[in-house]
Structures are given as C-alpha cells and as structure tokens.
C-alpha cells in the first residue's frame, strides 16, 4: 500500500506549527479520510470539524496546499502525493484549535441583512403570480452550503481583514437571492453601498473558483448587485428622473 506525508497545522489561537504525519493511502480516499486516519492512529487530540462527509454540510473547510477546499471533496488522486501535502485552517477567521476556526462572525453578519419582505398578495386568496424565469434566477443562490470557502479566499477579508466593513461574497449571494426574488420589495441598496461596502470587491472571481456548489458568485450575484447600486446612487440620468418624478 502506498504512503503519503501530510503537513498539518497544530495549535490554537495563541500560535502553533506544522507537524508531519506519514500514513497509508489507498484508491478512492479523500483528504478527510487521511486526516481521520492520522487522528485515529497518530494524533488522537487532532481537532477537525466535519459532519456529512458528502460535500453538503460545509463543515470540513480547510486550506489544502494553500487552496481553500472541502476536505471531504478533495480526492487524494488529484494531489501530487510525491510531495508533502499541507493542510491548515482557513486564514480569514480566528483559529480555535488545529484545523478548526471560529466562523461565528458570518452568522452575526447574516442577522444584519434585511430579511425577505414580500409584496401584497396578487390574488384574493393570498397567493402571488410569478414568471418561472424570475424564480429560476434565484434558485442558483439557494445551493450555498455556507462552507465559507468564498469568504476565506476573498482578499478583502483574508489579506486586508475588513470584517467590520465588508460582508463578503457569501452574503452578497444571500443578498442577491433576496434582491432578485420576484416577490421581494425591501430596499437593501443603501446597506450594500455603505455598511456592507460592495464597492470593495474588485471582481477577481476567486470566490467563484473555490465554490464547491459551482455558484457563479461574481457574474450572477455580485456584478448585478453592483450595477443596481451604481444605477441608484451614481447614474446621472437616474438622478434627473427622480427629480422630475
């Protein structure tokens, strides 16, 4: 049976270092399998967050060879196992222990986004009428599993630490799902412009690249939201139209 070496970050919020572990690997294994094997045989106190092992819970996010990925969806046969494989916690969030980070900031951000506000019913029985194309537009955003890999790779959060001023790609997706819903009438554009600082995103598309659900974050969520903000606050024709209407 083949063997591979994994360089796993061990430590806590105070500090830590990488430790090398060599373990047997076999066909079909994913990174999470290797981590569990190391945990069982060599490092019983290794902390790792996981749940479904099927790419649907978003719990096992980490950085594998420097790239944010789900450990349960990263097959070993896609990695250069002749070299040491590095595994470390997400860099955009505070470390708790080993591979586990504190992602609670994300849930606090979500609470600040204005919730869904439907328009009055279209029919006397309290129902609405919608075009299927409008419904389809927001369905893509519902696939998000909140793994926060897009948040982790975003340089505004990862490198510039603008957590107080910027909500990140995951919550632009959430906002887009609300803003583009055919029934929603809430106005979130002032918040997107000011408190949530959508202007800080420079559309590198790195968030789209790491999304395990293949959500087209940049093109289908962030850019349309940016266009709405520009139309509302910076388009001179729109300003004139508001004056005369």
Explain this structure to me?
It is a single chain. The protein is α+β, with helices and mostly antiparallel strands and 245 residues long. The protein has helices at residues 31-41, 104-112, 132-139, 149-153, 155-158, 169-179, 189-193, 206-210, 217-233, 236-244; strands spanning 2-11, 16-25, 61-64, 67-70, 85-88, 95-97, 100-101. Strands 2-1-5-3-4 form a 5-stranded mixed sheet. Strand 3 and strand 4 form a beta hairpin. Helix 6 crosses helix 9. It is elongated, with a radius of gyration of 21 Å. The protein starts with a strand and ends with a helix. The model has no long low-confidence stretch (mean pLDDT 96).
Instruction: Give helix % range.
Output: 25-40%
Which range does the strand content fall in?
Answer: 15-25%
Taken in chain order, the helices and strands follow as EEHEEEEEHHHHHHHHH
Name the structural class.
Answer: alpha+beta
Shape: elongated
List the helices and strands and how they pair.
Blueprint: E1 2-11, E2 16-25, H1 31-41, E3 61-64, E4 67-70, E5 85-88, E6 95-97, E7 100-101, H2 104-112, H3 132-139, H4 149-153, H5 155-158, H6 169-179, H7 189-193, H8 206-210, H9 217-233, H10 236-244
Parallel strand pairs: 1-5
Antiparallel strand pairs: 1-2, 3-4, 3-5, 6-7
Helix pairs in contact: 6-9
């Amino acid at each position: 049976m083949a063997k591979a070496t994994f360089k796993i970050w061990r430590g806590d919020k105070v500090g830590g270092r990488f430790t090398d572990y060599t373990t047997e690997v076999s066909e079909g294994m994913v990174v999470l399998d290797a981590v569990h094997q190391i945990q069982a045989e060599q490092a019983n106190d290794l902390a790792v967050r996981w749940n479904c092992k099927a790419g649907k819970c978003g719990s096992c996010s980490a950085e594998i060879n420097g790239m944010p990925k789900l450990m349960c969806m990263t097959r070993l046969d896609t990695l250069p196992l002749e070299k040491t494989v590095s595994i470390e916690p997400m860099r955009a969030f505070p470390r708790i222990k080993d591979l586990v980070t504190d992602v609670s900031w994300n849930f606090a951000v979500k609470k600040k986004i204005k919730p869904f506000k439907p328009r009055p019913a279209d029919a006397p029985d309290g129902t609405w009428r919608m075009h299927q194309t409008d419904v389809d537009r927001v369905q893509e955003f519902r696939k998000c599993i909140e793994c926060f890999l897009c948040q982790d790779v975003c340089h505004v959060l990862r490198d510039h630490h603008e957590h107080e001023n910027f909500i990140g790609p995951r919550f632009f997706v959430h906002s887009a799902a609300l803003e583009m819903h055919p029934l929603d009438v809430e106005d979130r554009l002032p918040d997107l412009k000011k408190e949530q600082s959508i202007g800080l995103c420079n559309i590198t598309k790195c968030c789209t690249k790491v999304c395990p659900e293949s959500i087209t974050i940049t093109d289908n969520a962030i850019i349309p939201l940016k266009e709405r903000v520009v139309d509302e606050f910076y388009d001179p024709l729109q300003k004139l139209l508001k004056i005369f209407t």
